[in-house]
Known about the structure:
Keywords: Cell inner membrane, Cell membrane, Membrane, Methylation, Transmembrane, Transmembrane helix. The chain is an alpha+beta fold. It has one helix and four strands; from the N terminus they run αββββ. Strands 1-2-3-4 form a four-stranded antiparallel beta sheet, covered by helices on one side.
Amino acid sequence: xxxxxxxxxxxxxxxxxxxxxxxxxxxxxxxxxxxxxxxxxxxxxxxxxxxxxxxxxxxxxxxxxxxxxxxxxxxxxxxxxxxxxxxxxxxxxxxxxxxxxxxxxxxxxxxxxxxxxxxxxxxx
Length: 124
């Protein structure tokens, strides 16, 4: 009598394959999730930098100095409202600098971006 050959996989082999697959799937999902969060944060930073650069360009076009007392305003960029704060502040390294901070609407915990620029004519 000939012995029948076994076909297919045993239960243990299936379980090991499922553990390996689920571990790889979880690692991939975590990587994709981090990538999405990073991309979203990058879009916020880019739009906030545009708001800061708009304030800097406006000051240069009107040839006006930044105020010594903090000035605040808001702007819409990318379908979202942004609050900016601009001020001329003292710096140990550069004398006085123009500082613009941009905050996302509804998030007062920290600015999305802070842009500091040495005005023309200041020591560098």
